[in-house]
């Protein structure tokens, strides 16, 4: 399984190939609205996105009058590229990856905040390392250019260190967790469910988590800009379905956890340990996030921080424009 946060360097390549080889497309990242009324919605391994499985199994898409083909991607990377190339209509993805795709030319709309990571992204260290400051000179595995790399840089900065003070070992997330358990590195930055794997190493412990950096890792429902423009009623139905699903989960917790744990390939006990580390957003929290502001809780502020990261690490050659990226009208129209 590839990482939820693998860098999107292939998105721009796929975009260029699509434009060169399929001249009928109006632009890379646009949805083919002529292919029928069904909407293909992608998602992958992250606790904040597994509620879509509940929505499908409990008939909540149909209840809201939208025909959805829910497509699960074992590779999160493939889901990002599928949305960027127009192969699917909507996807569940992080703000980092959305901005990276936009920098590569994709035309996208963020229409919903599913959640914020509030602890399910962790920096886990071996026995004898008790703080981020102790990482100086140590080997740290992380998926380079990914959100957990971003988390690592934030934690190092707080400890008055830089990336140059550690030995960075670039590995995709599942391989990074395995390398840590095998004793090949001193610490690792990973997300759930790979946190559970990393903590199998005797004596290991989290020394920093996303809970310490509120708003740094938001996760979203992202659609093609064409879908938002041409089929707003269907996008509204998707957003309405999300909030109906959150309500259903709250009222039927045990049944919902069984569905989500099965989709994630973990036990219900393991899944329950992820609960506090993923904060599912209410409608009001969505409205607050979409509102312009000057704290990490606001998407415009956080997007600028992430763009600094993307440009600074070379994942984006220039600062992508966020004009029109954040579409809050659908959350505003959700029945209360």
TrEMBL record:
<feature type="signal peptide">
    <location>
        <begin position="1"/>
        <end position="26"/>
    </location>
</feature>
<keyword id="KW-0732">Signal</keyword>
<feature type="domain" description="Solute-binding protein family 3/N-terminal">
    <location>
        <begin position="40"/>
        <end position="252"/>
    </location>
</feature>
<dbReference type="InterPro" id="IPR010067">
    <property type="entry name" value="ABC_SsuA_sub-bd"/>
</dbReference>
<comment type="similarity">
    <text>Belongs to the bacterial solute-binding protein SsuA/TauA family.</text>
</comment>
<protein>
    <submittedName>
        <fullName>ABC transporter substrate-binding protein</fullName>
    </submittedName>
</protein>
<dbReference type="InterPro" id="IPR001638">
    <property type="entry name" value="Solute-binding_3/MltF_N"/>
</dbReference>
<dbReference type="Pfam" id="PF13379">
    <property type="entry name" value="NMT1_2"/>
</dbReference>
């Amino acid at each position: 399984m590839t990482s939820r946060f693998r860098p999107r360097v292939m998105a721009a390549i796929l975009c260029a190939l699509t434009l060169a080889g399929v001249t009928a497309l109006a632009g890379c990242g646009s949805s083919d609205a002529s292919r029928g009324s069904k909407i293909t919605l992608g998602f992958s391994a992250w606790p904040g996105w597994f509620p879509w499985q509940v929505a499908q199994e409990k008939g909540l898409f149909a209840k809201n009058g939208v025909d959805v083909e829910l497509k699960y991607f074992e590779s999160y990377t493939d889901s990002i590229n599928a949305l960027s190339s127009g192969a699917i209509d909507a996807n569940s993805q992080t703000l980092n990856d959305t901005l990276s795709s936009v920098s590569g030319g994709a035309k996208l709309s963020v229409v919903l905040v599913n959640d914020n990571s509030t602890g399910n992204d962790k920096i886990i260290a071996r026995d004898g390392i008790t703080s981020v400051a102790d990482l100086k000179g140590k080997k740290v595995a992380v998926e380079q250019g990914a959100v957990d790399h971003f988390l690592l840089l934030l934690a190092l900065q707080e400890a008055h260190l830089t990336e140059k003070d550690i030995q960075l070992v670039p590995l995709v997330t599942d391989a990074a967790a395995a390398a840590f358990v095998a004793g090949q590195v001193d610490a690792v930055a990973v997300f759930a469910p790979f946190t559970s794997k990393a903590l199998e190493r005797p004596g290991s412990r989290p020394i920093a988590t996303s809970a310490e950096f509120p708003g740094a890792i938001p996760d979203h429902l992202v659609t093609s800009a064409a879908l938002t423009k041409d089929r707003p009623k269907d996008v509204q139905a998707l957003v309405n379905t999300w909030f109906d699903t959150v309500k259903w989960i709250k009222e039927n917790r045990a049944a919902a956890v069984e569905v989500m744990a099965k989709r994630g390939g973990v036990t219900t006990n393991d899944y329950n340990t992820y609960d506090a580390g993923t904060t599912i957003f209410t409608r009001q929290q969505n409205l607050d996030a979409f509102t312009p502001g000057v704290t990490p809780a606001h998407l415009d502020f956080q997007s600028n921080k992430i763009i600094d990261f993307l440009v600074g690490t070379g994942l984006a050659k220039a600062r992508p424009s966020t004009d029109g990226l954040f579409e809050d009208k659908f959350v505003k129209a959700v029945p209360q």
